[in-house]
Design goal:
32% strand, 108 residues, alpha+beta
Amino acid sequence: MSHSEAFFDPPLPFPIKVVLSATGPVRIYEIPEDQKEAILEQLYIFRPVPSLDDVMEDIHAEKQFRVREFLVAREGGMNVLASPYYLEAGGTVIDWELVRRARKRKRA
C-alpha cells in the first residue's frame, strides 16, 4: 500500500466549487446548513466536538470565527476541515483554538 492510499477519504456527497486561494485553485464542498453539524461530527479530529456556535480562532489568520462558518476542501484524496480563512491563510482544524463556548439556551 502506498502512503497516498493511507490518506484517502471517500468524497462527501455534496457539489464542489473551485475557488482561488493564496496558493492557487482549491476545491470546496458546498455543504447545506442543515448538514453542517453532521459533517463537523464526522470530520472533527478532536474530542469533544465543538458546538456550531462556539467561537474559534484560526491561529494562522489570527482571526476569529463561529464554527458553523467552517469550510471543507477536497485536497488530493482527502477531505480537509478548515476555517473560513483557509483560502487566505491555510488554517485547517489543527490550527483552531477555542475562544469561547456558546452559551446553552435555557429550555422553557
